[in-house]
Amino acid sequence: MRRLALPLLLAASLSACVSVSPDVRGRHEVQRMAQVQDGTVVSVRQVRIDGHQSGLGATAGAVAGGMAGGSVGGRRDGVVFATLGAILGGVIGNAIERDAGKDSALELIIQLRNGERVAIVQAQGDERFAPGDAVMVISQGRGARVTRALPPVPEHSAR
């Protein structure tokens, strides 16, 4: 049982390090074409992204709490304290995992060139947005992100 505690705690702490930044791309996005639409920022609002709960935090907390509780008292008391420790550890581990995954984010309302308005929530990246900013909405599959617009490409006359 003690051999499982360290790997579970390590896995729980590493799961909190997953990035949701708009500045980071996943492997599934590499060499895939995405749709780009020009638009204008209508509004920007700060929001929070709720933490991801995989259950690993609760599991690791329950194992650690159960082991700590089981080492208290005699054989009969150890079972009671192990049970209480596992319950308390699971609750604490779940809360830690949930809080560790929270992120600052932006809710951007964008008016596309075709007149349609869309809302996109994305983690706060390096770019700052304000109403009136020219932006590009890059969508791929079910996901989308917003980035600053590039300058227009000059038209070349065909000769």
Helical region count?
A: 3
Strands, total number: 5
Helix-strand makeup class: alpha+beta
How much of the sequence lies in strands comes to 25-35%
- CATH fold description of the largest domain: OB fold (Dihydrolipoamide Acetyltransferase, E2P)
Report the biggest beta sheet as strand number plus sense, adding barrel if it closes: 5 strands, antiparallel
User: Mean pLDDT, rounded to whole units?
Assistant: 78
Uncertain regions: pLDDT < 50 for 5+ in a row?
A: 1-19
Anisotropy-based shape = elongated
State the assembly state of the protein chains.
single chain
What is the helix/strand order?
HEHHEEEE
CATH architecture descriptor of the largest domain: Beta Barrel
The first-level CATH class of the largest domain is given as Mainly Beta
Please compute the radius of gyration using only Cα atoms.
24 Å
Helix content: 25-40%
**How many structurally independent domains?**
2
Give the full name of the CATH homologous superfamily of the largest domain.
DNA polymerase B, N domain, beta-barrel
Strand order of the largest sheet: 3-2-1-4-5
What's the end-to-end separation, in Å? 77 Å
Signal peptide: 1-18
Keywords: Lipoprotein, Signal
Protein name: Outer membrane lipoprotein SlyB
GO cellular component, one term: outer membrane
Quick recap:
The chain is of the alpha+beta class. It is 35% helix and 28% strand.
Descriptive account of the structure:
- The chain is of the alpha+beta class and 159 residues long.
- The chain has 2 domains: 1-16 and 53-100; 33-51 and 102-151, DNA polymerase B, N domain, beta-barrel (OB fold (Dihydrolipoamide Acetyltransferase, E2P), Beta Barrel).
- 35% of the residues lie in helices and 28% in strands.
- It has 3 helices and 5 strands.
- The chain has helices at residues 2-15, 56-70, 75-100, and strands at residues 35-49, 103-112, 117-123, 134-140, 143-148.
- The chain has a 5-stranded antiparallel beta sheet, with no helix packed on it.
- β4 (134-140) and β5 form a beta hairpin.
- α1 packs antiparallel against α2 (56-70) and α2 (56-70) packs antiparallel against α3.
- The longest helix has 26 residues, at 75-100.
